[in-house]
Design a protein that fits this description.
The chain has 135 residues and is of the alpha+beta class. It has one domain (20-134): VSR Endonuclease (Endonuclease, Chain A, 3-Layer(aba) Sandwich), CATH 3.40.960.10. The chain contains six helices and four strands; from the N terminus they run H-H-E-E-E-H-H-H-E-H. It has helices at residues 8-16, 24-35, 67-70, 75-78, 85-108, 124-134; strands at 41-42, 53-55, 60-65, 112-117. It has a four-stranded mixed β-sheet, with helices on both faces. A hairpin with a 4-residue loop joins strand 2 (53-55) and strand 3. It is globular and about 50 Å long. The N and C termini lie far apart (50 Å). 15% of the residues are buried.
């Protein structure tokens, strides 16, 4: 039995507001790349996993992952909700498996794949240096 703090209608409304594109972390990374002179495409449908940022001339794709949703090993990513625990463990595990498969397919096709984690946005100087090194 699942114990949720919200009734199903409210939970559905809450989850519907979770964005998959143009998220805050993604916008930060995009602004940094633009400032560094990189030009890119967004969410290329022709590539596996529809990467958040595609720098085709550099054969580089960048995924901007939320730590919770993609199971990062930081404090936020390691957190598992108490309510509906089994569902969330399975959900994050499926996301991680899909991410690994997507990375493997892109690398096999000759793309460099970089993942920027939400927690890495706290240190903008380090993130900017990392992005500059990629370019």
């Amino acid at each position: 039995m699942t114990s949720d703090v919200y009734p199903p209608e409210k939970r559905s409304a809450v989850m519907a507001r979770v964005k998959g594109r143009d998220t805050g972390p993604e916008m930060v990374v995009r602004r940094l790349l633009w400032r560094l002179g990189a030009r890119y495409r967004l969410h290329a449908k022709g590539l596996p996993g529809k990467p958040d940022i595609v720098l085709a001339g550099r054969r580089l794709v960048v995924f901007v992952h939320g730590c919770f949703w993609h199971g990062h090993d930081c404090a936020r990513g390691a957190r598992v909700p108490k309510a509906n625990r089994d569902y969330w463990l399975g959900k994050v595990a499926r996301n991680r498996a899909r991410d690994a498969e997507t990375r493997a397919r892109l690398e096999a096709a000759g793309w460099r794949v970089e993942t920027v984690w939400e927690c890495e946005l706290k240190d903008r100087t380090a993130l900017e240096a990392r992005l500059k090194a990629l370019l």
